[in-house]
Automatic annotation (TrEMBL):
Classification of source organism: Bacteria, Pseudomonadati, Pseudomonadota, Betaproteobacteria, Burkholderiales
Alphabetical keyword list: Flavoprotein, FMN, Oxidoreductase
Residues covered by the Nitroreductase domain: 7-215
Protein's organism: Limnobacter humi
Any matching Pfam family: Nitroreductase
Full protein name: Nitroreductase
PANTHER family per the UniProt record, alphabetical: IODOTYROSINE DEIODINASE 1 (PTHR23026:SF90), NADPH NITROREDUCTASE (PTHR23026)
Gene3D superfamilies: NADH Oxidase (3.40.109.10)
Domain of life: Bacteria
Length: 242
C-alpha cells in the first residue's frame, strides 16, 4: 500500500474473524515494526505474542477476572474493600495504574468517542450492564486470533513508553499493509499475572498495553470512525513578542 492509504486505512477493529493468522505473517509484521526508531536504538520494550492455546487461556482468564472487577465495581465500597483484603482475582494487578479520573480538558473528546462507539454497538448511555459488557469484550480480545502485549523497561521511565508507542503505531500500520486489522488496547494493561504464567517476563519490564490482531469482520462496530483532530487544535498559540 501507499503510505497515505495505509495511514488512512488503519482503524481500530473491535470484532475479528477467528481464522488464524499465519505465524510467518505475524513474524513479518513484528519485524517490519522493528524498523521503528527508538532512543539510542535501545528498543526499551519487549513483546509477548499470544496465539493458539496460550491466547485461549489468556482470553478465558482475563475475561473472567474482568467480570469479577465489574462485580466489585458495581458492588460498592465494602465489597471493594473485602475484595482487596481477600486478594480477589478481580482486583487489577497491572503494572501501570489505570486512569480513573480523566483530566477535564480531555474529557470532551473521550465522551464523544465513547458515545460514538456505544452508538454503533446499540448500547444506551444509561444501560450500565450493556456498557460493562461492551468493555468486557476487550478482555476477550474482541475475538482476535492473535495478540501482542507490550512491556516497557522501567529504567528509562516515560521514554520507554514513547518508544513503545512508536513501535505500536508501526505495528498497526504493518498489520494494515498486510491486510490485518488491529486494535491497541490499554485495557489489557489491567492484569499482569495471567501473562506471567505464559511468558518469561524480566522484572524490569512493565506491562503497558496489548494489541489485538487478526482479520476484520464486516460488522458496524468496525465502521466506527471517531472524528480525527485538526492539526490546528494541536498547535499551541505563539506568544506575541513585545
Ligand atoms: C494506547 C491506546 C490504547 C487504547 N486502548 C483501547 C482499549 O482499551 N479499548 C478499545 O476499544 N480501544 C482502545 N484504543 C483505541 C482508541 O479508542 C482509538 O484508537 C481511537 O478512538 C481512534 O480510533 P481509530 O483507532 O479507529 O482511528 C486504544 C488506542 C491506543 C492508541
Amino acid at each position: 500500500m501507499e503510505f497515505l492509504d495505509t495511514l488512512k486505512a488503519r482503524h481500530s477493529v473491535r470484532a475479528f474473524d477467528s481464522k488464524p493468522v499465519p505465524e510467518a505473517l505475524l513474524q513479518q509484521i513484528l519485524q517490519e515494526a522493528a524498523l521503528s526508531p527508538s532512543w539510542s536504538n535501545t528498543h526499551p520494550y519487549r513483546l509477548a505474542l499470544a496465539t493458539g492455546p496460550v491466547l485461549e487461556s489468556l482470553r478465558t482468564e482475563l475475561y473472567s477476572r474482568f467480570q469479577r472487577t465489574i462485580a466489585l465495581q458495581r458492588g460498592g465500597k465494602l465489597k471493594q474493600l473485602t475484595g482487596l483484603l481477600t486478594r480477589d482475582p478481580g482486583i487489577p494487578d497491572g503494572d501501570v495504574k489505570p486512569v480513573v479520573n480523566y483530566p477535564k480538558d480531555l474529557q470532551g473528546r473521550r465522551v464523544e468517542c465513547g458515545k460514538g462507539l456505544y452508538g454503533v454497538l446499540g448500547v444506551k448511555r444509561d444501560d450500565l450492564k450493556a456498557r460493562d459488557q461492551a468493555m468486557a469484550e476487550n478482555f476477550r480480545l474482541f475475538g482476535a486470533p492473535a495478540a501482542v502485549f507490550l512491556f516497557v523497561h522501567e529504567g528509562v521511565g516515560i521514554y520507554s513508553a514513547l518508544d513503545a508507542g512508536i513501535y505500536l503505531q508501526s505495528l498497526m500500520l504493518a498489520a494494515t499493509n498486510a491486510g490485518l486489522g488491529s486494535c491497541a488496547q490499554g485495557a489489557l494493561g489491567l492484569f499482569r499475572s495471567p501473562l506471567d504464567k505464559h511468558f518469561e517476563i524480566p522484572k524490569q519490564y512493565k506491562l503497558l498495553c496489548g494489541v489485538a490482531l487478526g482479520y476484520e469482520l464486516d460488522v458496524p462496530v468496525n465502521k466506527f470512525q471517531p472524528e480525527k483532530i485538526a492539526a490546528r487544535e494541536l498547535l499551541l498559540p505563539a506568544k506575541t513578542m513585545r
